[in-house]
Structures are given as C-alpha cells and as structure tokens.
Amino acid sequence: MGTSAQPSARHCVSCGKEISNDANVCQHCGHDYRVPVTGVAPVKKTMLPVVGGVLILIGALLVVLMGLALVGSIGALDSIMLVDVEEVEMLEDAMATCGIILLVMGLIGVLGGIFGIMRRHFGLAILGGIFALLGFGLFALIGIILIAVSKREFE
Ligand SMILES: [Zn+2]
Fold it and tell me: What's the number of CA atoms in the CB half-sphere (13 Å) around residue 22?
C-alpha cells in the first residue's frame, strides 16, 4: 500500500517522466518504445536437439562400455587355452588397440551427445553421433537426424 506507481503509468527510461503504459512514444522527450522490426526473428527452440543428443549419448555410452569390456577382458585370455603364447599376445595387442579406439570414439560420442543437448558445436555433435553409431546404431542414427534438422538452433 502507498506506492506512488499507478498500474497504467510508467516512467520513461530516457527522460524519467511519467508516461502511460501503452504509449508508443514518450510525449515528453520523444523516446520511441516500439520494438524495431529489423533483423530476423529469433530461431524457435525445439526439443529435437535435446532428444537427438540423448540418443547419441546412449549410443556413445554403449561404445564406451564395449571399449571397457574389450580392454577389461584382455587378461582373461591367459586362462583360456589357446594355441601358443605368441598368438595370445598378438590377440591381446589387437584387443587393446580396438578397445582404446572404441573408448576414444565413445568419449567423443558422449561429448557430442552433451553438445547436442546444449545446442552447441553442431559439427562435434554430428561427429559424436557418427561414433555413437557403433554402439546403438538406430538410436544414434535418429539422434543424428534430429540434430541435423535443428541445425539452426545451434550457436
Ligand atoms: Zn521521455
């Protein structure tokens, strides 16, 4: 109670004098309150990149799990009877290489999924989606499509 401001009045940001709420132009100093119609309309934000990012994230996490499983099962080969030690070592080297590649791809995919959710770094989001294809292909593919169609929303 007791405030001097009337609901139908406001103060001009330019001269500070009281003007009516629906005034387009200040009658005291001429300050124009109409929104300039220059420039393009802001891009409408949709949930598409968020859903796409989550799908890519799921695919990418599976790629990470595959990499971890490969690296983690290297030692287990020793207990399985294989032809000879040299072959086991070669196989273990191949598994380690593939596992590390999968880990790197999976982590880039995770990053891409997060960027997709944040609508940032469009290129990285797509790249992450491509790597995520190795994990959950269908999810990642839908995710890439959703990211691609919402490219305008990205910064
Ligand atoms: Zn004014």
Answer: 1
34 and 86 housed in the same domain: no
Q: 25 alpha carbon to ligand 1 midpoint, in Å?
A: 8
The residue written with tokens 């990499």 in the block is 67
* Residues around ligand 1, an ion, CB closer than 5 A: 12, 14-15, 26, 28-29, 31
Name the nearest CA neighbour of 29 among 17, 40, 20, 21: 17
118 and 138 share one domain: yes
Per residue in 23-67, pLDDT (tens digit) is 888 989 988 888 766 666 777 889 999 999 999 999 999 999 999
Domain membership of residue 26 as a residue range: 8-39
Residue 27 CA: distances (Å) to CA of 9, 22, 37, 80, 123: 13, 12, 22, 90, 51
Judge whether 78 lies within some domain.
yes
